[in-house]
TrEMBL record, chains A, B:
Its cofactor is heme b; Mo-molybdopterin. GO terms for molecular function: heme binding; molybdenum ion binding; molybdopterin cofactor binding; sulfite oxidase activity. Residues 94-172 form the Cytochrome b5 heme-binding domain. The gene is suox. It is found in: Mitochondrion intermembrane space. Catalyzes the oxidation of sulfite to sulfate, the terminal reaction in the oxidative degradation of sulfur-containing amino acids. Its EC number is 1.8.3.1. This is Sulfite oxidase. One of its GO terms (cellular component) is mitochondrial intermembrane space. GO terms for biological process: nervous system development; sulfur compound metabolic process. It is an enzyme of class 1 (oxidoreductase). Pathway: Energy metabolism; sulfur metabolism; Sulfur metabolism. Keywords: Heme, Iron, Metal-binding, Mitochondrion, Molybdenum, Oxidoreductase.
Length: 574, 574
């Protein structure tokens, strides 16, 4: 059932004005989507595989319990990797193929090629049978390893056997070497490797978001594809010599090693969604140019964080309620620096930091592992319910102060303004620094410009919803007709198959909800304008349209999310 | 300056399709507005006074420092009343006039008559000179006393002398008697007297809101015109024998007299805005019929409340953090009962009740006086940032419980639903009880259908803005062109002339902000569609339109507020 519905909802991806190509009846019932890494080089898309795949698909659908076991065991996957791959035998009977050649095979028309452990595979014919649906196309023209590392289900012998049937060559030795990144002497030379599925908005500093359809697949976002928003080069921090300084309290400066942070304070675990203030900025850019990275809808992710409570550490450093008479902010300084030595900085209100229900962490774990370098290794602030920019990574110093952080990012960035305010008239002092974020939701599946076949009879819409300040999302409304009529989506607040935990206490709903609606295709419609809007438990709602909330920095973009989907009538087929 | 601007902004009030009447040039520059008590009997409006008043007005404008001293000293006014009225001498030379006759004089065409201490006055000619502007028309056809009680500035000898010049008769002895309400035996017979300016939405139980333009005149709403939302008859509570019971805590039942509540616990004072969940319901009714009282935009008011903190009382009754392991709600029961003896009831989350920063009061004072009967005498809950319905009046019992209140109003009312949910499909269990309210704002001046003269050159727009949960309003945007372009309003968070207090700590901004914009009239426009929208410090914004937030109970109506105003060109005048 799950698979059938998923299949119905698969949609074709491409630029809005994508060209039509010849379509065969067999694939219409399970259209596929190709991931294009950016709007600049959005890959063209064509279909080539024929009717015979209908049977292959039906057979696979019948016996793919494996898909139901889909889990995200990234690290486990990496560990198991070396043993399971032995089952693929190398043979010299295959031609040597360059990466350049492999890269040209990224469409159904030109074939879908992938590499795996030095082998080159033409999986064009397998695409329609892939139990995980169109996600397989994310790897087109590149390596399978990063994707299989995300999906442990692939670490099974029969999967590898299946792959071996599609082998067409050996990757050239030179290109195998190139797959290990060349390190250079620039400040970004020590940056960690990143998952190739990420859509890169900026390379230095690194800013990237995952494909939306991956995002809504997992309640907990795997760290590898958790959106990355760095302001400066990733610092290399030695855990053994790491020190965290806490200043501004009656006890004087408290300095903690990583070990002390882990052992002197109880470990507290929360699941919290982080969102960049600029998430969905690209929609504001369509109204009028704004300044900032052109984020899509995926500069938001959800993880489980473990660490010491900031409250406990501040108490150990001498905090008492008296302090709140003179100090109102807690400043964070990162260890990441620009060329002048200026560190990244931000602050949060003191009452958020010390409130027992504020749940602010000095986190040293992300999804049960050490925090990865891109996310603040070894220690970052996690300020649940609060804009990503205040969740300072690579945390070096905490200062309890009468003043907000004086950093650029606190004072002259990450603030909201009226749509009429421009760079000539803006007064950054006139607006408060963004802390809690407003109600947000977006559609991850289908994507804008997708095509749904009339024979599918129904369409499945998926997405996420979240609100700042610990306000729980209580409802998501979905419209297929541009907002004229609405239906209520089903929500989930845990991984698929897992029972959700107890409802969070009021004001402590830090994690997003994923949602889904499956609805019949309207009889007469040739196009759907799918819209979503969420409501939180303060009954805050999203604004209808983008222009009235447009602002020069393109932050706080939380209008209804809209995607247009074309319905292809069956009689268009040949 | 203040007066001139006020004069420019005065606008004509009436139904949208109000008839045009002959207009004299002199009054065009300072149009007046007539209050109509409801849409059903919206008073017609005509002008009669001529050019000679231009000079009278100018003279008065020059010397009306009194207007700047306008204050709202209701009770003081009532006390001083008896002495100052002595200056009006009764004389038998005047004819006896019935109230019926007085009531017919409610328009400039038929004359504006008022009564005061048994005298009848034709103040038609004074209207244009009134330093307080068009508000004088609120008393047309009725008694001046309730209005003068609101505005202490009238308690001056020269004001009374001025009035005496307009005397035209004596009110009949019978009607003087009738001015004291006749008490009967129905459950509402002991209801308090209400201010005649209130727009009554329902008489039994009493539900009424003030005229919007009075609302935005005072940062602190005078208790007499504070919106009134009773669910049941007002109970008569004897303060001497009053008892408040606190149950559900380890210490057993704690019972407190009013005296004990006042003396055993420190008095805490907050200024907090209360809003009915149904405020602005009438706008939803225009989209599609909803169930509920047809509130305009004034089911919201702001007062200063004094009382014991609920937190302190719960601690005295045995509350400790252990209790929070088993109890999650604090239930309130009122002393107001229906015919079956069922009391009004509601509950709030325990963490709001016990949080030091929650500021929940067991209030026994409103604006520095005993709480009036309509507002919960002698003790009510004040739950700042939370929907009015949880601020239980005439408080009899507090129960700390694992469960929410089982009352109708908590379980099957005061919840939000999707626009597609109707009375056949609604499942009240599927939505959370409204607690914190979303961001809200509305335009109080001018009113919908008002006429602005081109010669005014500019228009002044006023209103209020507020958000629930202690979220501070940080910006109000105003548009004169239906939302195409926006300007930022000036805000104030205190009475005019008073310096605002220090900014509230984050999450404790309980009071609304009043705002104002004066803008040039657009050169070409014949009509203005004035729109406002507010932003709180979590950057929550109001939705653009009503239909997508429509819900069957007509609650949470917080779309952009829109009023249409006609610009009358000067060449229309004769």
């Amino acid at each position: 059932m799950l698979l059938l519905r998923r299949c119905h909802s698969l949609t074709r991806f491409g630029p809005l004005n994508t060209q039509r190509h010849q379509v065969t009846p067999a694939v219409v019932s399970c259209a596929v989507r190709l991931w294009s890494s950016s709007s600049e080089d959005g890959g063209s898309y064509q279909r080539a595989h024929g009717p015979r795949w209908r049977h292959g698909l039906a057979g696979l659908l019948a016996g793919t319990g494996a898909v139901l076991a889909y889990g995200l065991h990234h690290h486990k996957a990496e560990q198991q990797d070396s043993s399971t791959v032995q089952t693929i035998k190398k043979t010299s009977a295959f031609p040597i193929i360059s990466q350049e050649e492999v890269t040209t095979h990224r469409s159904l028309e030109h074939g879908i090629w992938v590499t795996f452990k030095g082998g080159v595979y033409d999986i064009t014919e397998f695409v329609a049978m892939h139990p995980g649906g169109d996600k397989i196309l994310l790897a087109a023209g590149g390596a399978l390893e990063p994707f299989w590392a995300l999906y442990a289900v692939h670490n099974q012998e029969h999967v590898l056997e299946m792959l071996s049937e599609y082998k067409v060559g050996e990757l050239s030795a030179e290109d195998v070497k190139k797959q290990r990144a060349i390190k250079t002497s620039d400040p970004y030379s020590t940056e960690p490797e990143r998952h190739p599925a990420l859509h890169i908005n900026n390379l230095k500093p690194f800013n990237a978001e995952p494909p939306p359809e991956l995002l809504s697949d997992s309640f907990i976002t795997p760290s590898a594809i958790f959106f990355k928003r760095n302001h400066l080069p990733v610092p290399q921090v030695d855990a053994a010599s790491y020190q965290l300084h806490i200043e501004g309290l009656p006890g004087g400066v408290l300095t903690l090693s990583l070990e002390e942070l882990k052992t002197r304070f109880p470990k507290h675990t929360i699941t919290a969604t982080l969102q960049c203030a600029g998430n969905r900025r690209s929609e504001m850019n369509k109204v009028k140019q704004v300044k900032g990275l052109n984020w899509g809808i995926a500069a938001i992710s959800n993880a489980t964080w473990g660490g010491a409570r900031l409250r406990d550490v501040l108490l150990a450093a001498g905090y008492s309620p008296d302090v709140a008479q003179r100090a109102f902010h807690v400043q964070f300084e990162g260890l990441d620096k620009d060329v002048t030595g200026t560190t990244y900085g931000a602050s949060i209100p003191l009452n958020k930091a010390v409130n027992e229900e504020g749940d602010v962490l000095l986190a040293y774990e992300m999804n049960g592992q050490d925090i990865p370098p891109d996310h603040g290794y070894p220690v970052r602030a996690v300020v649940p319910g609060t804009v990503g920019a205040r969740n300072v990574k690579w945390l070096g110093k905490i200062i309890v102060s009468a003043e907000e952080s004086s950093s650029h990012w606190q004072q002259n960035d990450y603030k909201g303004f009226a749509p009429g305010t421009d760079w000539d008239t803006v007064d950054f002092k006139s607006a408060p620094a963004i802390q809690e974020l407003p109600i947000q939701s977006a559609i991850t599946v289908p994507t804008d410009g997708a095509v749904v076949d009339r024979s599918s009879e129904e369409v499945t819409v998926k997405g996420y919803a979240w609100s700042g300040g610990g306000r729980e999302v209580v409802r998501v409304d979905v419209s297929l007709d541009g907002g004229k009529t609405w239906q209520v989506a089903q929500m989930r607040s845990s991984e698929k198959g897992q029972a959700p935990g107890p409802s969070p206490p009021p004001g402590r709903a830090w994690a997003w909800k994923l949602w889904e609606v499956t609805a019949p295709l309207p009889a007469e419609a040739q196009e759907l304008e799918i819209v979503c809007k969420a409501v939180d438990n303060s009954y805050n709602m999203q604004p209808d349209t983008v222009p009235p909330i447009w602002n020069l920095r393109g932050v706080l973009s939380n209008a209804w999310h809209r995607v247009k989907v074309e319905i292809r009538e069956d009689d268009n087929e040949e």
